[in-house]
Amino acid sequence: MRFKAVRKLTSLLFVFAVSLVGTNVYADKGSAPWAPLASEVVYQYVGHLEEVDDQGRLLVWQATIKGDVTGELKWWFVQPSPVSSTSYAGGRVNY
Length: 95
Fold this sequence. Notes:
By secondary structure, the chain is an alpha+beta fold. It is 19% helix and 32% strand. It has one helix at 2-19, and strands spanning 39-45, 58-67, 71-77, 86-88, 91-93. A hairpin with a 3-residue loop joins strand 2 and strand 3. It is elongated. The relative contact order is 0.12.
């Protein structure tokens, strides 16, 4: 009989503990937690400058981002290209 009481009490405590897991808590109550971020990104092609890093990758694109998120973005491409180019009517696609 005592074993059944302990089992019921343990089950009840487990259900109580699990029901508290779904509580929402925000770290900063002063901000809107799901507000969208707004930033401006300005892209610039710089592949013609032929800037290469220590691993031999070519800097092809760079961008600045300003707004809620601020910083600089850079796209480095490996040389030679790991994929061959594809020609089509009036143009060509490269990696």
